[in-house]
Amino acid sequence: MSSLALPHVTFLGGHPRRTGETAGLTAVLDRSGIDLRRPIRRFLRLPWPALRGLDVRTPDLLTMALRYDGLRSDGAYVDLHLDQGVCRLHVPGAPAAELRERLAAWAADAAGPGEPLPGTPPPPPRQVRGPAGVARMSLDVWRAAGLGAETVPDRGTLAYRLAVAEDHRHCGRFAEAVALLEPLAAGATTAFGQLDEDTLTVRNALGQTYLAAGLVDDGLDVLREVVAAAEHRQGADGDLTLVIRNNLAIGYQQAGQYVQAIELHERNIRHSERRHGRLSRQTAGRRNNLAATLALAGYRRRAIEGYWEVLDALSDGAYDDTLAVTARQNLAILHNPSWRP
User: Fold this and answer.
1) Separation of alpha carbons 75 and 9, rounded Å
2) Which of 132, 102, 90, 84 is nearest to 5 (CA)?
3) For the chain: N or C, fewer Cβ within 10 A?
4) What is the pLDDT of residues 226-273, one digit of tens each?
5) What is the model's pTM?
6) What are phi and psi of 248, to 5 degrees?
7) Helix, strand, coil distribution of the chain in percent, nearest 5
8) Which has the closest alpha carbon to 190: 163, 160, 168, 158?
């Protein structure tokens, strides 16, 4: 299927070069973009790389009155987000669910079989300038290890030291972060117990730091242990359990182990639905993580379906929600048959 034609489309405005409503167009999707055509000549060309978001839905009457020119109760509305605004189309005769399915089927067929993205390579070695730089780094690691090894007198002190370690990690100082977190995890266990939530939080940070440093096996080992401990402490639906299980799934994704990552994300969604509800923002965020993993694993059509579920879970009032924006962006990317993970 080299192209997909949608007849009788009405352009509703939103493009800087075409502002007025225009009916009787045909939208033709191919590998290079979306063409809006009159019977004789082209009306508007929208290349895939120019799209910043894609949405297909049947809005309620209030939404139609506020956002579109005129009321149309049949068919579906298509929003094509551009840098200059939102190009809006009405496609008659096809409910939103049916049109989404047609677009996803065409994109998957035009793209061909998917290939998974290889595992994330370890970060490049940290650049250290000369003997003085080596000495400074060694001193920083020694100081971090000393801070982590100090007795933990209270939870406030633990939180401060964890924040220092997280600052090291976010700045790419992985050796310092690991040097601080390894003894800090042991200290938290001594002070508060192995199953204490603060202890689990520190060990979760240690596992994430191992992953960020490229020590994937160590990171997965720690996070597997912490997930099991969190399930024992909070239950499978506990909020901390949900967070750590998500981090473990991301670790499997980073390692290129997509079967395990997808299974964990799906399990996390089930537990999130039980705790927070199917349409909650927490569950929508976990569906977003699953969709991202499916896309990287080469399952384009399943990823597209996942992002539609994210958008449908968010209310109309969440139009500018970061999850909704991300889902629309990724839907535009995944409908481009030339995109590869």
Assistant:
1) 10
2) 102
3) N
4) 999 999 999 999 999 999 999 999 999 999 999 999 999 999 999 999
5) 0.91
6) -65, -40
7) 60, 15, 30
8) 158
